[in-house]
Amino acid sequence: MKPYNNPKSGIDGYDYNDTWIQVHYKNGGSYEYRSPPIELHHIKTMQQLADSQDDLGTYINTHRDAVYSKARKLS
């Protein structure tokens, strides 16, 4: 898992490949966002935001219906 080094965020790590991103939260939960059912453009945007270390949590919250509601809880 790659570190997410944004102290303002509730996210502390992530990992991804072509069709999914896993996000680990500071509260201990991990979620997998996968295409399908999530549209691939959302996955790609989340990957770019993760790599830039900025606004990933904001994006997930802003697109709650399209992204978060379809995520799979890992732990």
Explain this structure.
- The chain has two helices and five strands.
- The longest helix is centred in the middle third of the chain and has 13 residues.
- The chain has one domain.
- A five-stranded antiparallel beta sheet has the order 1-2-3-4-5, with helices on one face.
- The chain has 75 residues and is of the alpha+beta class.
- β2 and β3 form a beta hairpin.
- 27% of the residues lie in helices and 28% in strands.
- The chain starts with a strand and ends with a strand.
- The model has no long low-confidence stretch (mean pLDDT 95).
Helix content: 25-40%
Q: Which oligomeric form is depicted?
A: single chain
Q: Could you spell the SSE succession in H and E letters?
A: EEEEHHE
Number of distinct helices: 2
The tally of domains stands at 1
Task: Tell me the strand percentage band.
Answer: 25-35%
User: How would you write the strand order of the largest sheet?
Assistant: 1-2-3-4-5
**Tell me about the biggest sheet?**
5 strands, antiparallel
Structural class: alpha+beta
Radius of gyration over all CA atoms, rounded = 11 Å
Number of strands: 5
Could you list the spans in which at least 5 consecutive residues all have pLDDT below 50? none
What's the average pLDDT? Answer: 95
What global shape is seen? globular
Distance, first to last CA: 14 Å
